[in-house]
Structure formats: structure tokens, C-alpha cells
Amino acid sequence: MNLSFQKIFFILATVFGIFAVLVFAKTILIPIGMALLISFILFPVSRKLESWGTNKIVGALLSILFLVLIIAGGLTLFSTQIIRLSDELSNFTDKITATFTDVILYINNNVQFLGDFNREELIEEGKGWLKDSSGALLRNTFSGTAAFLTGLVTTIIFTFLFLIYRVGLTQAFMRFASAENRQKVFHMLKNIQEVGKKYLSGMFTLILILGFANSIGLWIIGIDSPFLFGFLAALLSIIPYVGTTIGATIPVLYAFMSTDQLWVPLAVVGLFWFIQTIESNFLSPKIVGSSLNVNALAAILSLLIGGSVWGIAGMVLFLPFAAMLKVFCDEFEELRPVAMLIGSEVVGNDKDDKKSSKWIGKIKDWFSRK
């Protein structure tokens, strides 16, 4: 098989153009991607409301309001714990400074990479550094919060538009195909919507299971605000592969700072290691993995590419998008090799191996003929 220079240039230019659009238009594309996934799971709710006599606009508004009330209820439930935790964090400054100072002095006494320092001088310098850092952190927090709220409002607007224009958008996509293939395109769009809906419902179920498991474990160990830390760690699990580790780090650090007993943070580490093992080997493959049908290689690549292009939002969105891309490629004969590379079929099985061996044998016989 020979590829001409024009084809190679066209492929490379297309890939480069897609990445350029994803990077430069991420402010718009991230809310659209989030809204698309959210609208997939709100479609049945909006359709049910319309069957009860409401029009599309009212049904879409009530569907979004239902989701907002669930999120607001969760935030209200944890608001008192968040306020109490923020008050405790200010008390951890002295312990952080003292611990850091002891580590520096221990290393310096053995290596002598610094001059003579006493503990009081290092503590004062540490407090000054923390004070300066807290100001920068506060500014970054305000700017990040403003960007988050802007993206949230944009996502809600796009979700509303997707819900009220879903029929028109579906018909528009179907008209890209010829009349005899429009039913095939409609079937493909239904499958894509089903993948997104199953992914979000599976993630919601997984978050609930992990949240209660984490919270009960932290409560047994004796960590303050166990449900806050437990559900925060569970919520971060939507970031594939690294989210659970980040979520476990927060309660471990809190346990280290809030108690002088070493067994407490070690117990928290053991708890999250045990839960993460069960989650990665049993829960995720059964609850979420079955709806995606994406192999580990494609999942890791989507995670890395999404993180490099859109940051944390890309790490969350690109995995279900990879599953949707597989559904799209499955509908076209020319793109089915791409679907095989993304899907779990690339792993193969004994039946596939026998078929491959059969075809390889036929090819060898064909070439061996004189």
C-alpha cells in the first residue's frame, strides 16, 4: 500500500487543524461538550415532561431546574462542613510551618547544605512565605471561581438550547446523508446519545457507591467531616485513573495535620487503597466500562490528549467522546479499523485468533501457488 505525498499532507494537516481548533476554541468547546453530555441524560426527563402536556421550553427549563436543585441540595448539605473546615485550615499554618522547619533542620544537620539556622528564624521565614503565598492563592481562587461560574452559565445555556432544538438538530444531521441512509444516521445518533446517557448514569451510581464507602470508612477511623471528604474523593473519580489518587490525598493530608497519631493517616491511606482496588477492578468495569467499550490504550491516550488540550475538563470529556467516536466509526466501512483501534475488540479472543490464522493460511497458500 502506497500513500501519496498529497494524502499524507492532507492527513497531517487535518490532524493539526483539529488540534488547533480544540486549543484555540476551548473556551467555547468545553461548555458545548459538557452541555452535550448533560443534555443526553436530561433528554428522557424533558421528553417525559412534554408527554405530560408541557411545551419544549418549559420541559427543558424544568429538567435543568431539577438538576440544579440536586446540585444545590448537595452543596447546602455540605456547606456547614466546608465553613468549619475553612476555619480549621487557618489553625494548621503553625503545624505546617513547624513540620517543614523540622525537616529542613534535620536535612541540614546531616548534609550541611545551608548555613547555620535556628528553628525560630526558619519558622518566621516560613510564616512569611505562607502569608505571601496565601495572597497569591486567594487571587487565583477568585479568578478561577469567576471563570468557573462563566463556564457554568454558558454550559446551562447550551444545555437548554440542545434540549429545545434536539429534533431540529437530529433532522439536520440526517439530511447530510442520502435518503436511503438517513435511518442509518438516525440509528447512529441514538447510539451516541445512549453511550453518553449510560456513561453519566454509571458515573453517578459509581460516585454514590464510592462516596458512601469512603465516608463510612473515614467515620470509623475518626476523621472529622467524613462525608465531605468521602464524597469529594468520589466526585474526583470522574477524572479517569488519577482522580481517585487526588481525592485520597486530601483526607490523608487532613488526617496528618489534624492529629499527632501516625496510625490515623496510615489508616486513611489503607482505606483508600482498598476502596480504589475494588473500584478499579470490579466497580468501574461493571458500572461504567460496559457502557464505553473502550480499550485501556485508547482510554489512556484520550486522558493524556484531553489533559494536554483542555486540562481537567478534557480529562473528563475525552473518554466518553472516544466511545462516541467509536460508535460513529462503526457505521462507516472505511472507518471501522479506527473503531477497532478504539474498542475492546482490539484485545481479541480465541475465536478471532482462529479466524486470523485461517486467513493467514489462505494467503500463504495463495502466494505458494506456482
Automatic annotation (TrEMBL):
<dbReference type="Pfam" id="PF01594">
    <property type="entry name" value="AI-2E_transport"/>
</dbReference>
<feature type="transmembrane region" description="Helical">
    <location>
        <begin position="199"/>
        <end position="221"/>
    </location>
</feature>
<feature type="transmembrane region" description="Helical">
    <location>
        <begin position="262"/>
        <end position="278"/>
    </location>
</feature>
<feature type="transmembrane region" description="Helical">
    <location>
        <begin position="57"/>
        <end position="83"/>
    </location>
</feature>
<comment type="similarity">
    <text>Belongs to the autoinducer-2 exporter (AI-2E) (TC 2.A.86) family.</text>
</comment>
<keyword id="KW-1003">Cell membrane</keyword>
<feature type="transmembrane region" description="Helical">
    <location>
        <begin position="227"/>
        <end position="255"/>
    </location>
</feature>
<feature type="transmembrane region" description="Helical">
    <location>
        <begin position="298"/>
        <end position="319"/>
    </location>
</feature>
<keyword id="KW-0472">Membrane</keyword>
<keyword id="KW-0813">Transport</keyword>
<keyword id="KW-0812">Transmembrane</keyword>
<protein>
    <submittedName>
        <fullName>AI-2E family transporter</fullName>
    </submittedName>
</protein>
<feature type="transmembrane region" description="Helical">
    <location>
        <begin position="146"/>
        <end position="165"/>
    </location>
</feature>
<keyword id="KW-1133">Transmembrane helix</keyword>
<dbReference type="GO" id="GO:0005886">
    <property type="term" value="C:plasma membrane"/>
</dbReference>
<feature type="transmembrane region" description="Helical">
    <location>
        <begin position="12"/>
        <end position="45"/>
    </location>
</feature>
<dbReference type="InterPro" id="IPR002549">
    <property type="entry name" value="AI-2E-like"/>
</dbReference>
